[in-house]
Design goal:
The chain is an alpha/beta fold and about 290 residues long. It contains 9 helices and 12 strands. It has helices at about 25-35, 50-60, 85-90, 110-120, 135-145, 160-175, 235-245, 250-265, 275-285, and strands at about 10-15, 40-45, 65, 80, 95-100, 100-105, 125-130, 150-155, 180, 195-200, 220-225, 245-250. The strands form 2 sheets. Strands 2-1-3-5-6-4 form a 6-stranded mixed sheet, with helices on both faces. The protein has a 6-stranded parallel sheet with strand order 9-8-7-10-11-12, with helices on both faces. The longest helix is centred in the last third of the chain and has 16 residues, at about 250-265. The chain is globular and about 60 Å long. The mean pLDDT is about 95. The structure holds 2'-monophosphoadenosine-5'-diphosphate (ATR).
Length: about 290
């Protein structure tokens, strides 16, 4: 346990619930590795007290905050500024202290991007299938459009929602590369190998026997299968994709890099690949993941 001193700066996570968060492992390990006098803790915040929490943290000189479910959009009116990408996505997961308040950023999507890059997966000129058009699917679609994907199929159980999100992404990014489809109609998409990003909560612990698409022939569309879920470490979606010969990746590296990007913003430092590896190992140990 790190020594807490009079000089120790504080960063933290606001959300509800927060007690199972892995973020303290990420940030406290980074502080240890980089020799930065900072402690990271979690704060459980009720829905109606988000504004008080942000203003209170500012008054207490808290250096920075992460924001998790269910406050990622609710926090926005309480900021003094917002980064353009976070504004496009409509969700903020990182608050950085500046003169007069906190500025909001979204490091989830850049975190996913950096995780993909770390695995040698590129988006430029890539054809992508996204499963899910909720808050997460929407952000992933935005990220794919911004980072040069040539074509993005947004598949959702409720087609109407996928259409709305596709329209919004087109409007906000000025890119015409995104198409909405009902999940059940995946066979109408040209059959070829795609980068498939699973962005629903289907298959998350304890529902480990569920996959958003159960039909095995769907998995013939998967070249690389990325599930944003990290618990379990291998989801049913990933198992089915692997059975069909695809390469897979779970959401743990996205979690790692969203944390690293937030840490870099708060402390004006650059985390090396070697340090990132050590933090990743610690996360896996904390989650009892053996690969
Ligand atoms: P999040 O912010 O995590 O994306 P959300 O906004 O509630 O959460 O979105 C959940 C996503 O998972 C949606 O795309 C949802 O599909 P619908 O828009 O049709 O509701 C999808 N989802 C949830 N349960 C599902 C299931 N059993 N089968 C297929 N899709 C499901």
């Amino acid at each position: 346990m790190k020594e807490i001193k009079g000089t120790t700066a504080v960063c933290g996570l606001i959300g509800n619930p927060v007690e199972h968060s892995i973020s303290p492992i990420i940030h406290n390990t980074l502080s240890e590795l980089l020799g930065i006098d900072l402690a990271y803790v979690t704060f459980c915040v009720e829905n109606e007290r988000v504004g008080e929490a942000v203003n209170g943290a500012y008054a207490l000189s808290v250096r920075g905050l992460n924001v998790t479910v269910p406050h990622k959009s609710a926090v926005i009116p309480h900021l003094c500024a917002i980064d353009p990408l976070a504004e496009k996505i409509g969700a903020v997961n990182t608050l950085v202290r500046c003169a007069g308040g906190y500025k909001g950023y979204n490091t989830d999507m850049p975190g996913l991007y950096r995780a993909l890059v770390s695995e040698g997966i590129t988006l430029e000129d890539r054809e992508v299938l996204i499963l899910g058009a909720g808050g997460v699917g929407r952000a992933v679609a935005m990220m794919c459009a911004v980072n040069g994907a040539s074509r993005v199929y947004l598949l959702n159980r409720t087609l109407e929602k996928a259409k709305e999100v596709a329209d919004e992404v087109r409007e906000r990014t000025g890119r015409d590369c995104i198409f909405a489809e009902a999940l059940s109609d995946y066979r109408s998409i040209p059959k070829k190998p795609y980068l498939v990003i699973q962005a629903t909560s289907v298959g998350m612990f304890p529902h480990v026997e569920d996959a958003v698409i159960e039909e095995q022939d769907f998995y013939e569309y998967v070249d690389v299968g990325v599930d944003l879920i990290f618990n379990p470490a291998k989801t049913k979606f990933m198992k089915a994709a692997e059975q069909a010969g695809a390469r897979t990746m779970n959401g743990l590296k996205m979690l790692l890099y969203q944390g690293i990007l937030a840490y870099e913003l708060w402390n004006d430092v650059k985390v090396t690949d070697g340090q990132a590896k050590i933090v990743y190992q610690k996360m896996k140990e904390a989650m009892n993941i053996h690969e």
